[in-house]
């Protein structure tokens, strides 16, 4: 089993390794090319992101700068938006659903290190995958730790540190992140009403 295979399966692996180094250099080159894109070069920038990432939907927007380890272990659905300064450490898979919004400086980590110092000093490490469901909104400066799953339609407040799974249809925030309340029918009706007012105002212009 190669170090890459060990890494992706969540086992201990040692870095640096020639194969992993080559993948990192490829990722860094693509990230540099993305950062060098001019304002109007949207098609070129999106094409580079499609080369960098393992998968991304047809419609997406990622603000610069964007940082990742390999990129190839990041899988993103449709209608994805990541604001500026997003970091994704993808030593294990990061899987993101459809219609997900990330605020500025959101960080998603899959990388882990042994707790024992003597073992850690040998430079072995490991990872745990992160999964984010559909229609999730994650506020700015949130940190999502390794092994976390965030459920569908969840809202994570800004500045949160997510250390445990978050269920569907809830608002959660804090350090450590905790569920504050469920999203309700009252929430839905309120925001549908606000949307109708907005759409009506547009028709009257």
TrEMBL record:
<comment type="similarity">
    <text>Belongs to the transferase hexapeptide repeat family.</text>
</comment>
<dbReference type="Pfam" id="PF00132">
    <property type="entry name" value="Hexapep"/>
</dbReference>
<dbReference type="InterPro" id="IPR039369">
    <property type="entry name" value="LacA-like"/>
</dbReference>
<keyword id="KW-0012">Acyltransferase</keyword>
<dbReference type="InterPro" id="IPR001451">
    <property type="entry name" value="Hexapep"/>
</dbReference>
<protein>
    <recommendedName>
        <fullName>Acetyltransferase</fullName>
        <ecNumber>2.3.1.-</ecNumber>
    </recommendedName>
</protein>
<dbReference type="InterPro" id="IPR018357">
    <property type="entry name" value="Hexapep_transf_CS"/>
</dbReference>
<feature type="domain" description="Maltose/galactoside acetyltransferase">
    <location>
        <begin position="4"/>
        <end position="58"/>
    </location>
</feature>
<dbReference type="Pfam" id="PF12464">
    <property type="entry name" value="Mac"/>
</dbReference>
<dbReference type="InterPro" id="IPR011004">
    <property type="entry name" value="Trimer_LpxA-like_sf"/>
</dbReference>
<dbReference type="GO" id="GO:0008870">
    <property type="term" value="F:galactoside O-acetyltransferase activity"/>
</dbReference>
<dbReference type="InterPro" id="IPR024688">
    <property type="entry name" value="Mac_dom"/>
</dbReference>
<keyword id="KW-0808">Transferase</keyword>
<keyword id="KW-0677">Repeat</keyword>
